[in-house]
Amino acid sequence: MIIILKSDIDEVQIKHLLEHIESVGLQPHLSRGTYRTIIGLIGDETEISADRLRSFPGVQDVVPVLPPYKLASLQAHPQPSVVDVSGVLIGGGHLGMIAGPCAVESEDRMNTIAASVKQSGANLLRGGAYKPRSSPYSFQGLGEEGLKILRRVGDRHGLPVVTEITDPRNLDQVLQYTDMLQVGARNMQNFVLLSEVGRTSTPVLLKRGMSATIDDLLMSAEYILAKGNSQVVLCERGVKGFDNATRNLFDVAAVASVRHLSHLPIIVDPSHATGRPELIPACALAGLAAGADGVHIEVHDCPEEAMSDGPQALLPDQYAELAGQMSQLAKLLGKTISQVGNAAGDPA
Amino acid sequence: MIIILKSDIDEVQIKHLLEHIESVGLQPHLSRGTYRTIIGLIGDETEISADRLRSFPGVQDVVPVLPPYKLASLQAHPQPSVVDVSGVLIGGGHLGMIAGPCAVESEDRMNTIAASVKQSGANLLRGGAYKPRSSPYSFQGLGEEGLKILRRVGDRHGLPVVTEITDPRNLDQVLQYTDMLQVGARNMQNFVLLSEVGRTSTPVLLKRGMSATIDDLLMSAEYILAKGNSQVVLCERGVKGFDNATRNLFDVAAVASVRHLSHLPIIVDPSHATGRPELIPACALAGLAAGADGVHIEVHDCPEEAMSDGPQALLPDQYAELAGQMSQLAKLLGKTISQVGNAAGDPA
Amino acid sequence: MIIILKSDIDEVQIKHLLEHIESVGLQPHLSRGTYRTIIGLIGDETEISADRLRSFPGVQDVVPVLPPYKLASLQAHPQPSVVDVSGVLIGGGHLGMIAGPCAVESEDRMNTIAASVKQSGANLLRGGAYKPRSSPYSFQGLGEEGLKILRRVGDRHGLPVVTEITDPRNLDQVLQYTDMLQVGARNMQNFVLLSEVGRTSTPVLLKRGMSATIDDLLMSAEYILAKGNSQVVLCERGVKGFDNATRNLFDVAAVASVRHLSHLPIIVDPSHATGRPELIPACALAGLAAGADGVHIEVHDCPEEAMSDGPQALLPDQYAELAGQMSQLAKLLGKTISQVGNAAGDPA
Amino acid sequence: MIIILKSDIDEVQIKHLLEHIESVGLQPHLSRGTYRTIIGLIGDETEISADRLRSFPGVQDVVPVLPPYKLASLQAHPQPSVVDVSGVLIGGGHLGMIAGPCAVESEDRMNTIAASVKQSGANLLRGGAYKPRSSPYSFQGLGEEGLKILRRVGDRHGLPVVTEITDPRNLDQVLQYTDMLQVGARNMQNFVLLSEVGRTSTPVLLKRGMSATIDDLLMSAEYILAKGNSQVVLCERGVKGFDNATRNLFDVAAVASVRHLSHLPIIVDPSHATGRPELIPACALAGLAAGADGVHIEVHDCPEEAMSDGPQALLPDQYAELAGQMSQLAKLLGKTISQVGNAAGDPA
């Protein structure tokens, strides 16, 4: 950590600061410049809080040298992590191809969609049973009934399932039915929820908050890792932008940034990132080309009847076409898409 | 609601859309322009979902005419609401002057700070017992012990208290000790939490999320109102900006925007908005001049020992000076600052 | 255009508005809803200003139905435009691969870099002679001497050249030496400059401003087109974001958005978008995968000696490796990279 | 300046870097930490470029300690500057109250507006003759005829005048007619224009660009100061935000930020910041309360006939009411509003 002192700091204030630094077991290294004096800290800087140092009189700024997360960092784990979702691998060259409707609406609909996306090449099925909706008057999901449908349909088609958790009080229930827990963008800094999913051993899909920096995202992952759950997959789904041309601003460079900072897999979600079906294929391919470990896409067979997020869903045929292009690109990039067997209907 | 059709929509698609509109009891009003055709909807547009309409083939865009919230709107309640926090009024010309440390750290410290801010003119005391921290390794608050300290200190100095709720499972406990519940910026779209505080009758301080629009903020208030709790005070605390000169970007115009849309009181929090003590006084006064119903300020008697957010706290003397300026400005603006009696130590 | 009226508008105000609309030759189409009344305009809405309509008493909002640009729109020109830069094609399946240093520094250095990028597969050479620098104390470019070097080196290696124009008074001089004019991000709304380059017939590379929406970008292109120059190539180079992890936020979805709105080619500039060499390859490939018509990359053989923007330049070897990957991806996407002959040193 | 080295830098790279630093006359001060090594630079750091240092192999980041501007800094000039616009003072306790229409449209209209705002207390008259418009099809201003009208009307009512310069080729002409030159937000980084107005001795109103940081704004001021013109007034006019509730995001904290960094006066422009007349008064008062040295407001007597920006103009009566409130607030804050005599029509 580097402490930059104000030009008018006096010697008493410097002494006070140096004593504090030494009191926590660090060694201060003072450099008096022509215009400013700085202090470099030698030792384990996790012992000291940058915020506390900033509060000392005479301190202008504090520049951390190490990232604030540890377990999520490449230093802690230099090789890419591979997350295993009931047989489907994500990370380290394996792509997680997640597809399905925003919300579970009925078993028939879920079956139709699952059959189609499985055939197109998806390897994981998504569907929300507890929906976080910005209006209290909107459809809030089928609850446990939705979870049961998702589980049965996933099993039928050989697709491990992903569903969102929004309430720590539902965690035990949701864990009975799902292979992967999703923490949504609006809950990325719901630290209570992060701690709870961290206490499980179920893989977690952690979506980036709409105004979260990469460091914020990795700190939220750190919450989960610190509680003992190492099965975390990050997801870039667009951040808040100033242009209404798209629902969010798809930050494709985040994929590459994360790769240089963390061992955790990161996938992209062009459905939420753009909110416009006609832009989804371009952004899905861009995400893979940038090195993403998978793609999350909302698919619905009749968007006009969808109970949520219909306008951003691809039709099954559109998904099939895109999946073909993604598969070709994956081949060029040397990535593989693993599948689990189809318990009920596997033709083999 | 207005539906703008694509230029290449065909008559079958138009018919399909008109039938849907009529099926939900609305009357479509078709205008065929030279370049585009539009449909205006006559009737109660809350019966129909803009998202669903956007999913119909041939629909280019849907423009809502009414705001998505109802109970929070001026239409529902044309006069400003006044929220009563155990005797301290906020709204309708009454200012809520909230002050105190980020976190409750000890009874002594809390006492010192409370005595000082009460004398300076604050009428509500804040202090966190459950702290949402972006690092899992940071101080997370004293929990119930912190709540007890806050309650005793508030009572001693005649200051109703405000504290943050982060977990629905703690709600009953927190309600035993506090006069007002705070929902923090990171939980503004934690709909589970909003629903739970909506089921109480305790006043709620709802802070704007870092990337929440005014409409998003009012929709979150609507969640609380829709569950039956009408005692909601909004808080502008800065949104995400691109300039690191300040921690967040203080959106002072939001105060005036809300005034034209909603009856709910809105206060400002220049401590979180700027993150820099030297900018807090200017922004506090700006907030009042823009019409805010109060000011929330973090005060700590020794920022370098603060267990969280030290660098953005004012010293008690700095708060006293600012409170004097705010009081003068309040007088010019014709606003009043109500106080409750001092149960234990009131000199009268 | 659709005019949404305030709920309290009176009949006199409505009459006043209708008369104005008819006075400019348009036909108003009034729909009185349960809550709000709207007016649809039938006829050529370019005859009327949305801003002026918004100024009428009783008007709440005006929603344009058509885009504000005409010549740049797909309606005006449904097929993709192909821009010819002295033999190198951009658009309609042809990729413009622009490479070179930020600034022209010396003929030797320029020669070295040009030889290398040509061999790697670049087909256009960039180099600034008039540099817009945010500090008045920074290197401002070699001026005409730089233009001469760029011209000679481009000719020697069979690379048409691109250079920035910053001052309308230099236009005649710059035109003597360059094959393509660049208008930089900071000048995207320098309408004086746009008008002047619009009066030439030289291809223009128009970079998106840091806070420009897609509509803003297309309106700036419209300025050039409206003055008679149809040879415009757009460039996405990152917009202002809130995360310092990258210099700007690379908006890869803009490539796909533009494709749905305009016939103009659009390329990407991952050098300025990210400002970090280690992220450039991922973003270059992402841009191509999203459908970009080319890639603009800064290359320097000794970044530590570069007179501007050194930290974001690729080394020639790094560019060579990336160019190989881009070439493979281009093949998969069915795109071609045209080259012009090498006037001086063509081995053939 | 502080250089943070990568953890894998080798001794040869460190030596290479140290030699470079010494070669420009600076003294490096190496601190080897447990995890990272840093180098502090002692001496005049303006001799070295942070960008160039960032380009050295093994350098992770460079943290400047001093601001990049000099003449604009408080270090260079610790007392607030007072700018004299033909007798009207701005800065150091004097408020510049600028009012007038967006564009000069006719002498009659200009006269009506000027008479009204002068009586309300404005001390400077604005009006555009060369208008930068985002559409090439919009009204572009009356040119020299507009300048003549502005000059005559300003003289008649005792109001020095402000008008925008957009083209360096018009500078001599504009200087014949105006008391203050405005550089608009879209030209804030048009360095050619900044240099040219820097060569005059006419006061300059420099508006903040839509995505400019405070440092960017001060660097643009530095351009003008470095060319010899010290008469610069800054203007906060809203930055790009994500919420369409307002046209821009009014960054009122910028007023206080600038006060801690620079001696230059700064005024606010709530007309452009909000784009909504009903929010202008709140933001004007907020700006003054935050310490602004003046307020710029667009006033038009018939917004529906305005040739540009009608929807954001106040009516003369609305301005009169606001001016009364601003005057009261100015008194509370101890600020004065100077007036020049009325050459032609002064009743005295």
Q: What does this protein look like?
A:
The structure is a homotetramer of 348-residue chains. Chain A has 348 residues and is of the alpha/beta class. In chain A, 33% of the residues lie in helices and 17% in strands. The first copy, chain A, contains eleven helices and 14 strands. In chain A, helix 3 packs parallel to helix 4 (144-157), helix 3 (107-120) runs parallel beside helix 11 (316-333) and helix 10 (280-289) runs parallel beside helix 11 (316-333). Chain A is elongated and about 75 Å long. The N and C termini of chain A lie far apart (59 Å). Chain A binds chain D through residues 2, 4, 29, 31-36, 38, 40-45, 63, 65-66, 240-242, 244, and chain D through 2, 4, 29, 31-36, 38, 40-45, 63, 65-66, 240-242, 244.
Given the C-alpha coordinates, what overall shape of chain A results?
A: elongated
Percentage of residues in DSSP E strands of chain A: 15-25%
Could you give the order of the helices and strands of chain A? Answer: EHEEHEEEEHEHEHEHEHEHEHHEH
What is the overall pLDDT average of chain A? 93
How would you characterize the largest beta sheet of chain A? 8 strands, parallel
